[in-house]
Amino acid sequence: MFNLVALLAYAVMVISIVWSLHRVRREMLASSQADAQQQAWRTWRDDVRERQATGAAPVKRRVPKSIEPNLTVLLRDYYGTCLTGAVFFCSLLFWVLWFLLRGVLAARE
């Protein structure tokens, strides 16, 4: 019975991870097409470049080479990798916690 509950909880967890990451990706790609967001990114890059050139920046940083926001590039070009990593590491954590919980409950009996 406990194994069935664990499998159902695992299935719910994986489905929620896939659904939520897909939703975030869809919203990010839709909003990245907005001209206002592209302009804000360009303005920020230009501001960083200017601050680095004049030495007015509090820390030394590299100016991003991408003309698009980093999260947009990540979720567009590396979505499969992000999804695989999220499911893998959440699964690993889930099954370790399930193993520990099973041990605690077995020790009580």
How is the topology of this model organized?
Layout (H helix, E strand, L loop, with lengths): L1 H31 L2 H20 L15 H8 L1 H30 L1
Question: Which keywords apply here?
Answer:
single chain, about 110 residues, mainly alpha, elongated
Walk me through this protein's architecture.
The protein is an all-alpha fold. It has one domain (2-108). It contains four helices and no strands. It has helices at 2-32, 35-54, 70-77, 79-108. Helix 1 (2-32) packs across helix 3 (70-77) and helix 1 packs antiparallel against helix 4 (79-108). The chain is elongated. The relative contact order is 0.13. The mean pLDDT is 88.
Sketch the topology as an H/E string, one letter per element.
HHHH
| Count of spatially separate domains | 1
The geometry reads as elongated
* Overall number of strands: 0
Number of helical segments with 4 or more residues: 4
Mean pLDDT: 88
Characterize the biggest β-sheet: none
Kindly state the percentage of residues in helix: over 70%
Class from helix and strand fractions: mainly alpha
